[in-house]
Amino acid sequence: MEWLSLEQKCMKCKECSAVLIIRVGDAFCKACFKEYFVHKFRAMLGKKRLIYPGEKVLLALSGGPASSSMLQQVQEGLSWEAGKKLRFVPGLVHIDEGAVRGQNLKDREKMVAEVELVLKRSGFPYQIIFLEEVFNLPSSVVRWDSKNIPSVADDYKAAVDGFLCRHTQLKNAESGIRTCSTGAGVQAKLAELSIKEPEPTASTRTLRLPSAQSTQALNQLFDSVTSLTAKEELLHTLRSHLLIHTARAQGYSKVMLGDSCTRLAVKFLTNISLGRGAFLAMDTGFSDGRYGDVVLVRPMREYSLKEISAYNEMFGVPTFFSPALNSKPSEKGSIHQLTETFINKLQSDFPSTVSTVFRTSEKLNVAGSVESPDSDSAARCLFCLCPLDTQIEKASAFHATLVSEHLSQKRSPDLPEAAANQCCASSEEERRCCRKPAEGCSSTTSRADERLTLLDLLCYGCRVTTKDLTMLDHLPHYVRSEADCRTRRAAMKKEIQEFLLHNNTDLEDVLKA
Amino acid sequence: MEERKLSRIVWGARALLSFWTAIPCGGAELLFGGLKKHHVTLPIQSDTWDIRHLLVWIKQNLLQERPELFIQGDSVRPGILVLINDADWELMGELTYKLQNEDSITFISTLHGG
């Protein structure tokens, strides 16, 4: 055959013919590629020493290539021989975002059924959640939970040894009771037990589609966002809140996300453009402890999407296709899309683009203050739970931005009367149609107030994107009630400030009581 | 005699095209008429079929809307991975790869939302 002349040998085994170029000049054959891929996953978890044996880990599955591949790796990892075996207890969650992705009920039903089939086949406990459930979230979701941080054994090795010890004891005890049953049988039984345990709640709840009312509310919320960039960010925020809530409710202490390095490189540049530069390390790092008790982990971050897609295709990993957020996509639709196109275009001409960007992001560390345990939830962004980057000195770019914004928006800040007149004048048109000029006027000012107090609780990046949200009324209840709560608490704190000897944590306790 | 010569020129007249390249906006289904797999028989042409020709042919015959989401310039859109018989097309000479009979060409999108 003619094309054989073009063929390269695998750079690893030097025998088989190569099937994939991973980096420039590194061609792998199918067997070596698989080995490399599997090894990388194990090495990633082994090196970071973050996931303790016996820990409950929630795998967030979007159904896209990266997360599907992650599920497959975990499945494989649990079947490795004793020494290499992954020892955590996985659970799966899929969030159905069909409502905001413009799918109709029939398509969503079909999609959910498809996803469920794959989740069921994995043998792990699973749950399918609809994005509509954000309206039922408690406001504790957006609080930084430091109390429930699991007491982590200082030494990873000691923890592993302890786990192994307990495990063998358990096994011995079991085999003592039933001498006839083999070790493998016991293990299978154990596995069965751990699978069956949380099932009743999961399987009964899954297939009920959300009410039309909540779907409508969700659509209203997304319709009130004017730019696609802000929509993407809002979706990301809501999705994270749902994941954290699910993890907390079911006792998972880690959530695994399937972010690939290609995606993280895009996210890196996107987040800089969005004004989230202060949180890059958290947004793109291997572990993300912004929620306190639940830690987000990104085990797929060393894989490029090319590797992942090729692996899925070659080894038959099932993936789903989920449509993009917007129905009429264009390259310049959102900052996210623009950055993705930019990176991909550059990558096709300069194949080290993604890795360069990605390695740059890796060098960033979380600043000391961010992870300090005493920073309470009041000092954290209401949306992304990052420590607020807005409380800084006056001689800063941020402050300058605020001043210029203030000057440009309120044309006459010194003359409130004039402003009021203006407001009424502008509502004169409204008067003709609704005949409630006074009410309209006051409601617009109270709305503006609410907006201002909400913006005060956000980090710079979230402030910028929230400006594109036209109607705060559509925000889920938990966001607004938490915003109220924080504002009241801050006001109260200010009021009793002078009676306090010093600003310590007692105050928090008093206020909470 | 004339016929045999022709059939040799159109080596790779039949090929299996798999489109995993879900394009944003309804995805591959929308772009390629609701099908993910296409068994195609390419018409006879004087030149041998290579991927460059194939892309042009796909653009003219299979793509139903928004071709720029799949093809840009004379190559595929950056971010779309091409596998020829399950192997990376970069190993096969990319656009210059000469199609064989019964080849399977797979397009996988690594882009967001598809």
Automatic annotation (TrEMBL), chain A:
Biological processes annotated in GO: protein urmylation; tRNA wobble position uridine thiolation
Family, similarity comment: Belongs to the CTU2/NCS2 family.
Source gene? CTU2
| Entry protein name | Cytoplasmic tRNA 2-thiolation protein 2
Query: Quick check: keyword Repeat in the entry?
Result: no
Cytoplasm as a keyword of this entry, yes or no, is yes
Q: Which GO terms describe its molecular function?
A: nucleotidyltransferase activity; sulfurtransferase activity; tRNA binding
Q: In which pathway does it act?
A: tRNA modification; 5-methoxycarbonylmethyl-2-thiouridine-tRNA biosynthesis
Gene3D superfamilies annotated for this entry? HUPs
- Matching PANTHER family: CYTOPLASMIC TRNA 2-THIOLATION PROTEIN 2
What the protein does? Plays a central role in 2-thiolation of mcm(5)S(2)U at tRNA wobble positions of tRNA(Lys), tRNA(Glu) and tRNA(Gln). May act by forming a heterodimer with CTU1/ATPBD3 that ligates sulfur from thiocarboxylated URM1 onto the uridine of tRNAs at wobble position.
From TrEMBL, chain B:
The signal peptide here is none
Predominant cellular place of this UniProt entry's protein = cytoplasm
Q: Which GO terms describe its cellular component?
A: cytosol
Its pathway?
tRNA modification; 5-methoxycarbonylmethyl-2-thiouridine-tRNA biosynthesis
Q: Which InterPro entries match?
A: Beta-grasp_dom_sf, Mopterin_synth/thiamin_S_b, Urm1
Cross-link Glycyl lysine isopeptide (Gly-Lys) (interchain with K-? in acceptor proteins): located at? G114
Q: Does the keyword Coiled coil apply?
A: no
Q: How is it modified after translation?
A: C-terminal thiocarboxylation occurs in 2 steps, it is first acyl-adenylated (-COAMP) via the hesA/moeB/thiF part of MOCS3, then thiocarboxylated (-COSH) via the rhodanese domain of MOCS3.
* Keyword tRNA processing listed: yes
Subcellular localization is given as: Cytoplasm
As stated in the Swiss-Prot or TrEMBL entry, residues carrying the post-translational modification 1-thioglycine are G114
What biological-process terms (Gene Ontology) are attached? protein urmylation; tRNA thio-modification; tRNA wobble uridine modification
| Alphabetical UniProt keywords | Cytoplasm, Isopeptide bond, tRNA processing, Ubl conjugation pathway
User: Which PANTHER family has this protein been placed in?
Assistant: RURM1 PROTEIN
Protein family:
Belongs to the URM1 family.
Q: What does the function comment of this entry state? A: Acts as a sulfur carrier required for 2-thiolation of mcm(5)S(2)U at tRNA wobble positions of cytosolic tRNA(Lys), tRNA(Glu) and tRNA(Gln). Serves as sulfur donor in tRNA 2-thiolation reaction by being thiocarboxylated (-COSH) at its C-terminus by MOCS3. The sulfur is then transferred to tRNA to form 2-thiolation of mcm(5)S(2)U. Also acts as a ubiquitin-like protein (UBL) that is covalently conjugated via an isopeptide bond to lysine residues of target proteins.
Annotated protein name in UniProt: Ubiquitin-related modifier 1
